[in-house]
Amino acid sequence: MADFIVSLLTGLSSAAAMFLVASGLSIIFGVTRIVNFAHGSFYMLGAYIGYTLVQAIGSTAVGFWAAVLIAAVAVGAIGVVMEILLLRRIYRAPELFQLIATFGVILVIQDVTLWVWGSEDLVGPQAPGLKGAADILGKPIPEYDLALIAISPLVLVGLWALFKLTRWGTLVRAATQDRQMVAALGVNQRWLFTGVLFLGSALAGLGGAVQIPKGGADLLMDFNILAVAFVVVVVGGMGSVFGAFWAAVLFGILQTFGIQILPNSTLVLMFLVMAVVLIFRPWGLLGMPETLGQAHPGPPEQPLRPALPRVRILGGAATALLLALPVAHLVLPQLVGAFTLVLVIEIMVFVLFAAALHFIMGPGGMVSFGHAAYFGGGAYAAALLVKFADAPFEIAFWAAPVGAALLAFLFGWFCVRLSGVYFAMLTLAFAQIAWAFVFQDMPGSVLRTFGIADEFGAPLKITGGDDGLNDIWPSAWAGTRIAYYYIAVGLSVAALWIMRRFLYAPFGYTLRAGRDSPLRAAAIGIDLTRHRWLAFALSGAFTGLAGALFLFSKGSVFPTTLEIARSFDALLMVLLGGVQSLFGPIFGAAALTWLNDLFSVLSYWRFLLGVTIIALVLLLPQGIVGFAGTRLGRRLRLARPEEITA
Amino acid sequence: MRSSRAFLTTTGAVAATAIAASVAFAPASAAAETIRIGDINSYTRLPAHTVPYRQGAILAIEEFNRSGGVLGRQLEFISHDDQGKPGEAVKVAERLFARDEVALISGSLFSHVGLALTAYAKKTKRLYIAAEPLADALVWAQGNRYTFRLRPSTYMQAAMLAAEVAKVEKARRWATIAPNYAYGKDAVAAFQRVLTDLRPDVEFVGSQWPALFKIDAGAEVEALKRLEPDAIYNVTFGGDLAKFAREGKLRGLFEGRLMVGLLTGEPEYLDPLKDEAPEGWLVTGYPWYDIETPEHKAFVAAYRQRWDDYPRIGSVVGYNTMLAIKAMLERAGSTDTEKMVDAMEGLSFDAPTGPITFRAIDHQATMGAYVGWTALRDGRGVMVDWKYLDGAGYLPSDDEVRKLRGGQ
Q1: Using an 8 Å Cβ cutoff, are A521 and A365 in contact?
Q2: CA A80 to chain centre
Q3: Is the pLDDT of residue B29 over 50?
Q4: CB-CB contact of A325 with A340 (8 Å)
Q5: Which residues on A lie below 8 Å from B209 (Cβ)?
Q6: Which of A109, A332, A442, A471 is deepest in the core (most CB within 10 A)?
Q7: Nearest CA to A329 among A316, A318, A339?
Q8: A460 in Cβ contact with A444 (< 8 Å)
Q9: Half-sphere exposure of A627 (CA within 13 A, CB side)
Q10: Which ipTM value was assigned to this complex?
């Protein structure tokens, strides 16, 4: 019994930090509809600023808690700066575009933090007055855990009072429910948004600062908390503070008892729970369905038209240039080095990956946060066939798109029933489950339970876990750099063309109809779910093809090909290029891959890349292809006169 | 109009930055006399571990160049970030060989990055000297002619700890806690195997597997307490170790129990804990402050003078890696890859930590590790009663190694 109580209290205390971070994210999303990826960075900044302040003034109990509060306010102020300088300028951009702006902020904050505080992990000092352990039924439990358990209900009550009892809170609740109506009533949304960003960021900073005595500050905190925060927010219901509270409590307790019963479940438990919750309650525990009229405020999307003659000529010229590049390499090796070919192969892999994601994201309106599952999943399908069936390259290669399509078919069945952010988070959950599957080598572990193991009793290596599958190369005829270059370029250009054909066929029109008006599409007898499901599987197949090209160009595959960061890379490429044009993902993927290669040889390259992304976002709020819609682009006959956006 | 003008300005600015960057970092048109060494490591992902490595390596390179270089040629160290991603590391390797014309590549910390480069070295028949990745597969299951490894592997370090434990302690009920990925799993498996061989009476009652860098320390400590072990084998490190050590102390986990920690004594992991460093744990690590050999004292003095900082385990690994490359080049007399590989096999050289040999049978170096007990001194964690164990004594038999390498 005493053990049970202590475990329960332990779970509640780890719920506290989760709740603080998640509530801030939830409030920001609820009002502004911005998916703020920089939230984890604010949490990290809260920890670092808090650490510095605690060192300076935190030797007494009063000083310690003052330091924590000042850190939270400081981080709130940083959130305000981000809102005024950055987000405010792009509220009217296509939905989710703000996401890449916040991603640029992540990169900048990472390098600034490294520069200011150095690379060594900072272990936080303990809180004065709460250094010991309390005795609960004869078992020790840290006093600070009890303080944390008290803090989160206090914050919850404070937020409740703020939202229920003040005029500002009433406006925030109104904006969460129907933003356009609030605007119509003459409320100045700018200040509302600025205030919300302050509150949300300060909560993230508070979360980072209060966990100092439990841990400290390190440079990996931002990404580590981000996924957790999103899961808590989504399970609780986006925009619901009470939902976030109960979800945090649920996860805190599940985690504590989960690792006692299944010590191996640490990687996947949260995502499994999220998948189950979303399948049965598509809007989370306490969330509400999206109200109509809540669509994003930008101008309606232009219909797809055939490309202008000049655009066709440019596309043809680019393809010809790609095909001629190896010849140039042979004739003028000083000008076109061998590495240029390597880089172009890599760019084409990511162009294909981004275009396949765009296939469902742009015309389909389905934003996937977990597309790496099909990229890596395809690569693993091919690699496993090589390793365990000795399949030749020519056959194993095609196992990737087929395997990825089957995986997308399976996951898609669940996902396509959801929409918006909930769809995105369910794809993320499935991607994390797939990642854990290969990362923990679940097939090998299952075999062991049937007594099939290696001579030392260890699980057989099937996916190889973190060590991956190595030494998988194309056949001799395809193994030279130039041969593989033509394979990669040829297949990705062909795949791009096929996807384009799909989107200009009735299938593509149906997809867009479903995106723009699901109600009307259903009313004319379209089975939307089935179309979305098919599109999802097709996108998976093309993503798997990119995965195969990646695998055989690198010679090995690791769980990193399925991780969240890889999914986000593709998402960024689509958004940066411009989600409203079929050319967007091509430009976005090429630009990001090239910039990454260019900058990554410098120290503090993340700062440079982040600043570049932010600059591009501010100047081209329609993405890179938005350039065609500017007056200059129109003058160059890259867009029709009516497509001017700026 | 405003928008397109603004667009042109930024495009111009971005393009100018890009061009300036490519010009600044294009290889200085091959000064054929210098020998270039390509370095790949996770400088942005884990700077706390990789930057000391680079500093140690640069210190060695500068020393060589001051004393006339190698084979009469100066050495150049070209260092790039792999972002902690295996695919990126392979791309960086291609860039180093194709554009920078390096003679060989070395470095890396993460096991999966090291394994990707191992496969790449085999395919392209270029030399790769893995400095820090610990995965056993690197020299065994995936081992090949073109890959060598300096640092003692997971198996070697775990075997050292198990052998020491078997000598001194009577603990029978063991629990383990390790990060939930390949390194953690291998470290637990190797320790269990060696300890069970030496002491058939021990019993492993349970294992905890926190996610790497996401430990829920309070919950893990409670779960370990429920197992009621006599002794606990810890593989967590970094921020996870700090949280585990603090929660374990507060919740009374360590009282009356033998604690054993893999890598826990390395300054990278022990120093951030300051006066909360665990006391009385049996660990592997690097007690740079107490190593009194003249070679090592000279190394510490030179390192401090060059970097105004004390060495970490990464620093000495970086330094030793460059010493190995120098000795190899002198033995090979050339930068031809096949000649360099032949020179690496069986190569012996003296390092600040003692003599090291690259075994011909599996390309693993015999660099050892320091094993001792943790204690507090002047408000910081140190290792006491330590000894240096040569790696050669903690490797499986040659027959077993041949079987593991599958005749490669």
Answers
A1: no
A2: 23
A3: no
A4: yes
A5: 259, 263-264, 266
A6: A109
A7: A339
A8: yes
A9: 18
A10: 0.88
Rounded CA separation B339/B350 (Å): 21
Q: What is the pLDDT of chain A when averaged over all its residues?
A: 89
Q: What is the pLDDT of residues B138-149, one digit of tens each?
A: 998 889 999 999
Q: What is the torsional sign of CA B293, B295, B296, B298?
A: positive
Spatial distance between the Cα atoms of A527 and A508, rounded to a whole number of angstroms = 14
Whether B137 sits inside 8 A of A467 (CB atoms) is yes
The partner residues of A136 in beta bridges, in order of sequence, read A139
Q: Which of B44, B181, B239 sits opposite A216 (nearest CB)?
A: B239
| DSSP one-letter code for B393 | G
Nearest chain A alpha carbon to B269? A121
Question: What is the average per-residue pLDDT within A410-438?
Answer: 91
Number of H helices and E strands in chain B, helices first, is 13, 14
Smallest CA-to-CA distance from A345 within A515, A474, A485 is with A485
Question: Which 8-state DSSP code applies to residue B70?
Answer: B
User: In angstroms, rounded to a whole number, what is the distance separating the alpha carbons of residues A584 and A94?
Assistant: 13
* Domains within chain B, CATH numbers bracketed: 35-153+292-368 (3.40.50.2300), 155-290+370-394 (3.40.50.2300)
Q: What helix, strand, coil percent values describe chain A, rounded to 5?
A: 75, 0, 25
Instruction: Please tell me the predicted confidence (pLDDT) of residue A440.
Output: 82
Q: Taking a C-beta distance cutoff of 8 angstroms, is the pair B130, B150 a contact?
A: yes
Q: Which two tokens stand for residue B102?
A: 């390096």
User: How far is residue A216 from each of residues A44, A46, B90, B245, measured CA to CA in Å?
Assistant: 10, 10, 34, 13
Q: What is the phi/psi pair of residue B174, to 5°?
A: -115, 140
Farthest-apart Cα atoms in chain A, separation: 81
Select from B1, B2, B3 the residue whose CB has the most chain A CBs within 10 Å, as the one to mutate to test that interface: B3
The length of chain A is 646
Average pLDDT over residues A553-571: 93
Question: How many other β-carbons are positioned within 10 Å of the β-carbon of residue B235?
Answer: 26
Give the model's pLDDT for residue A645: 52
Task: Please give the structure tokens belonging to residue B243.
Answer: 């949280």
Which tokens is A330 given?
Answer: 């042979």
Nearest to A141 among B90, B239, B251 (CB): B251
Q: How confident is the model at residue B227 (pLDDT cuts 50, 70, 90)?
A: very high
- In chain A the domains, ranked by start, together with CATH numbers, are 19-220 (no CATH), 309-591 (1.10.3470)
Residue A51 phi/psi, 5-degree rounding, is -60, -50
CB B327 within 8 A of CB B347: yes
**Residue B310 in tokens:** 């004390």
Of residues B315, B402, B306, the one with CA closest to residue B351: B315
User: What is the arrangement of strands in the sheet containing B369-377, beginning at the earlier edge strand?
Assistant: B203-208, B173-177, B231-234, B258-265, B282-285, B369-377, B380-389
Express each pLDDT in A446-476 by its tens digit. 776 777 766 555 566 788 888 899 899 999 9
Residue given tokens 């005493």 in the structure block: A2
Asked if the Cβ–Cβ distance from A556 to B116 is below 8 Å, we say yes
**Nearest residue to A527 (alpha-carbon basis) of A518, A538, A537, A536:** A518
Structure-block tokens of residue A174: 């109104």
A255–B216 CB contact, under 8 Å: yes
Backbone region of residue B263 per phi and psi (left: phi > 0; alpha: psi in -120 to 50; beta: other values):
left
pLDDT of res. B277 = 93
Pairwise CA distance, residues A341 & A588, whole Å: 19
